[in-house]
Amino acid sequence: MARDPRARRAARHLQAPTSAPREPRREPLTVERIVDAALHVVETQGYDALTIRAITAELGVSPSSLYKHVVNKADIDDLIIGRLCSELVLPEPDPDRWRDQLRQVYGQMRDQYLRYPGISRAALAAVPTNLETLRVSEAILAILLAGGIPPQTAAWAMDSLSLYVAAYALELSLVRVRQTDPDDEWVLSRGELLRRLGSLPGDRFPHTREHAAELTSGSGHERFDFTLDLVLDSITR
Description:
Elements: H1 5-14, H2 31-45, H3 52-59, H4 63-66, H5 73-86, H6 98-115, H7 131-146, H8 151-179, H9 190-198, H10 206-210, H11 212-215, H12 222-236
Helix pairs in contact: 2-3, 2-5, 5-7, 6-7, 6-8, 7-8, 8-12
């Protein structure tokens, strides 16, 4: 062996590497990772941005790799709604508290939808096949039946309430997006809306002008709670 340090250094540089450098091991693609990526796209960019291309870009994989795990975009919609449903806390049906329990479940569902802008569109007109989605509908049906609601009424009430929650969340998500878009300056504050309604011609819009405050009232989710109670009151009659 060369004694001169410079000679030893030169000798090291002349040696061939014993093995090729290892490439970083890529995490295997799974359905769970696909759902995580899809939800991240919706959370950061909105539901309109959720495409196969956006998901593959998020994961750094090819579309062909994705299609080994999912069928199509509709399949992904089913999976992401199933994920949201899996996070809902479902109570044991209580005949004395069934209305409060329904408000609790649908309130959770609303908040999940609002967390991911526009995602409730994935739940609209979808046939629930995901086991987690079916778990939630089973629990809601059980709560309604425990409250003494006839099965047919319970089934249609559940459908109506779920549809309303999805539509409510979608509308609120759209308004929030428009409020941050400089091209959508027509989205008005309540004060501006009150001013405009109050200045309408009284001969053509007497009721709208007189009751502008009532038409624009409601803070937080007061309108949401009102509509849920409206449906629950009607099915108990």
